[in-house]
Write a structure and sequence with these properties.
The complex is a heterodimer of chains A (304) and B (167).
Chain A: H1 3-24, E1 33-35, E2 49-55, H2 66-80, E3 84-93, E4 97-98, H3 99-107, E5 110-119, H4 120-123, E6 125-133, E7 137-144, E8 156-164, E9 167-175, H5 181-195, E10 202-207, H6 215-221, E11 225-226, H7 227-230, E12 258-263, E13 269-276, E14 281-283, E15 286-288, E16 295-301
Parallel strand pairs in A: 2-3, 9-10
Antiparallel strand pairs in A: 1-5, 2-16, 3-4, 3-6, 5-6, 7-8, 8-9, 10-12, 11-12, 13-16, 14-15
Helix pairs in contact in A: 2-3, 5-6
Chain B: H1 2-25, H2 30-39, H3 41-54, H4 57-76, H5 84-101, H6 106-127, H7 141-158
The chains are: A alpha+beta (304), B mainly alpha (167).
Chain lengths: 304, 167
């Protein structure tokens, strides 16, 4: 090979490297990570199953108030004595490191995480879905849902079986794109197939980016139980979204797009269920919201 | 003997490229970062030995810096890619390789120069605390590492003779 051709080939290889960087800039992780069992020794408080669901807002690219918002989320998980926490938009940044690991460490919970978007190596940021559990987890599974309309945007679902005192429970977390009714329907159908029927009860939480009167959610509601709607009293208020995280309380959440479902729930009883983190909280001299979404909280008596 | 040494370095370099690729695609396990850096040790040692014999002293010193860089990279693990002084040292090493290789291995030199530029950019972004999304550019050095290591491995296999890497 002549010198000129070798240089040209090297330049072409460099271009391949840049193309690889672009293609890897936002991809789901190859497999879930975390620590599923035997990582914590904390005792759970007695009582029925307590579940929290929250889209915690990664805040890319500014990551505004991320440390203080993590503090608020940790406080809420502790206050609710949550056994299971289903999270979306859990970030990794240079400054925070792995937020799911920090949440798990500070709340004494096992955790699994899978990146949905971004790439910590390629662009120094990533975000994904996570399950925190007071119970040991096993049979962790994940799937990539049908693509929406954005090249760099991917949607996944993450599941794990929790070994609880009431027997196994399948926990599933997801964040759908809601780009259109067709995309929403395709993603929900794929989610239903992924959640499947493991032969024991399941809880599914996520930001579905779809209103409850959308055809796909109406159809889903015929098979799965919408926990907040089925609660007594029900809480079907808005869960999204507030742009100004430091706005004083009383800002309105308009759309209900975050849900908590129970699957194969014949013997379950919903003790209570409501939105949480609905209002800004006082942090020092300022008001701050934990996320642009409200969280969901449910206490569920498994009846066994 | 030369073929055996360069062959080993080439295989390790390909292993480093593979480990870096997995690290790039997965990211959550720092073990791949550590493995990739350790697998680069034979290659960096070979390049340092070659540069020591053929290049002027400043470039040879920079090329030898690579051994320290990859060992420190393994020690830093997850934090290497966002540690400004390590990124600067990596850029200096690659710059030394580029200068030392330019006359006899222009392809390796060009890729080393591109890798040095990407590492220098990453170091600058970290030093000056440039926020996202501009800071995303710091990650270009990772695929550059993959391509550079793969090229170096092939180059070692094709040109392991005394006229080539080890004189």
């Amino acid at each position: 090979m002549t010198r000129r051709r070798e240089v040209a080939a090297a330049l072409l290889a460099g271009a391949v490297a840049i193309a690889l960087w672009v293609l890897a800039a936002s991809r789901p992780g190859l497999w879930p990570s975390g620590c599923e069992r035997d990582c914590v020794k904390a005792e759970r408080s007695p009582g029925p199953l307590r579940v929290v669901q929250l889209n915690m807002l990664h805040g890319f690219p500014r990551f505004a108030h991320i440390d203080a918002r993590i503090d608020l989320i940790v406080d809420e998980i502790r206050r609710r004595q949550a056994d299971v926490v289903l999270l979306q938009e859990v970030p990794w940044t240079v400054d925070t490191g792995s937020v799911v690991s920090e949440l798990a460490r500070r709340t004494d919970m096992e955790h699994v995480f899978r990146r949905a978007n971004g790439n910590r190596r390629a662009i120094l940021f990533e975000e994904g879905d996570a399950i925190l559990s007071r119970f040991p987890m096993r049979d962790v599974a994940t799937t990539e849902l049908p693509r929406g309309n954005h090249f760099f945007q991917h949607r996944i679902a993450l599941a794990a079986t929790l070994d609880t005192p009431w027997g196994p429970i399948r926990a599933v977390v997801t964040h759908l794109s809601g780009d259109s009714a067709a995309v929403s329907a395709a993603q929900i159908q794929a989610l239903r197939e992924f959640a499947g029927s493991p032969g024991y009860p399941g809880i599914v939480g996520g930001d579905f980016n779809a209103r409850e009167d959308s055809p796909a959610l109406v159809a889903l509601g015929q098979d799965w139980t919408d926990v907040l709607r089925a609660a007594n009293p029900p809480d079907t208020g808005g869960t999204c979204c507030i742009d100004n995280l430091i706005a004083p309380p009383n800002a309105e959440l308009h759309e209900r797009i975050d849900y908590l479902w129970v699957v194969d729930a014949d013997s379950w009883r919903i003790v209570e269920a409501s939105r949480i983190l609905v209002q800004a909280q006082r942090v020092g001299a300022e008001w701050l919201r934990a996320s642009d979404h409200a969280g969901l909280f449910a206490v569920i008596d498994l009846g066994r | 003997m030369i073929r055996a040494v360069t062959g080993l370095a080439a295989v390790c370099a390909l292993g480093a490229a593979a480990a870096t690729t997995i690290d790039l695609l997965q990211g959550a396990d720092a073990g791949w970062t550590v493995a990739a850096n350790l697998l680069l040790v034979p290659l960096t040692a070979l390049l340092a030995a070659w540069a020591w014999r053929t290049a002027t002293r400043p470039y040879a010193v920079l090329a030898a810096l690579g051994i320290v860089v990859v060992i420190l990279g393994a020690a830093l693990g997850d934090r290497a890619g966002s540690t400004s002084w390590w990124l600067a040292a990596e850029a200096a090493w690659w710059a030394g390789i580029a200068a030392a290789a330019w006359r006899s291995r222009p392809g390796l030199a060009v890729l080393a120069a591109m890798a040095a530029t990407s590492a220098f950019l990453a170091a600058g972004l970290m030093i000056f605390g440039i926020p996202e999304p501009v800071a995303s550019a710091a990650g270009i050095r990772v695929p550059m590492t993959i391509v550079w290591a793969t090229w170096a491995a092939i180059d070692l296999v094709l040109r392991p003779t005394p006229a080539g890497l080890i004189t």
